[in-house]
Amino acid sequence: MALLPPFSLPGRFWRGNLHTHSNLSDGALDPKAVVDAYKAAGYDFMQLSEHFIGNFKWPIADTRAFRSNSFTTLIGAELHAPETKVGELWHIVAAGLPLDFPKNRDGETGAELAARAREAGAFIGIAHPAWSQLTIEDGRAIAAAHAVEIYNHGCAIENDRGDGWYLLDQMLSENRRLTAFATDDAHFKTPDHFGGWVHVKAESLDPDVLLDALKAGRFYSSQGPQIHGIAIDGKDIQIATSPVDTITVICGNSRSLVRNGRAITDAAFDLSKLEKGWLLNWKSPWFRVVAIDASGRRAWSNPIWRDDIG
Description:
This protein has helices at residues 31-40, 110-119, 129-132, 136-141, 153-159, 165-172, 207-216, 306-309, and strands spanning 2-3, 12-17, 45-48, 51-52, 72-79, 92-95, 123-126, 147-152, 179-183, 197-202, 219-222, 227-233, 236-251, 256-270, 286-292, 298-300, 304-305. The protein is of the alpha+beta class and 310 residues long. The chain folds into two domains: 10-222, Alpha-Beta Barrel (TIM Barrel); 227-309, Immunoglobulin-like. The protein has eight helices and 17 strands. It has a 17-stranded mixed β-sheet that branches. The chain is 19% helix and 33% strand.
């Protein structure tokens, strides 16, 4: 069995949150209090993603003073510009922005703003698709995206619209090589914190190293469970996790593979079974792994592309 990235790569997993707000924009707590809360909760890094919108003149948060050998921050923002299919502003997470990133240009669209942020070095994620009621046409518009926010804890808590997989799965099946990230989008006005995060595989906690790993897809997302490894040998797949009750492999059609139990920590499947089914005449070029614990909390792998594993 060949262990797949990021599990096969050197380094360790660092736990981080990419989408959170302080009172520099519309959050309840000052930046230090937010950072201290994430430190106390066992995170290794975070990003204050204040709303980047000209009407309010909110700044890109400079959190460099909070960095240490055991905790670090990324510099970024939540970008806004017109306009989605339902006529609202775009919400786009940008991690790794320069502090002097220029404000929106006159007439700049969400797609153009995302492209400019990517050119400036940022990791670009389409934020809370269900909350924003994004369509596949919206997804197609953001050509600069690296990823889709597939779980937003604040949206899940406040209006039961925390999901983003419905959009990402469609985009994957159109051969968009995107990744998936979970976040809090915490404002600390409701219990909207410590509910979704990324585990990034990197050799150090250096912000630039973490940013490179995010762009390369060297991470998985979680609400609690851990994925310890995914290994492939031909059509056979083996998955190792922390104790969970369900391990499943899903793809771009209705086929899936599943093992259920109590506190199971591994599963083995024949991937060829994803190619068999009712009137099935399209083989999904990708699949992904989900692990679900007894409390319903999930861990999600990034999409795995068949042509990357032979």
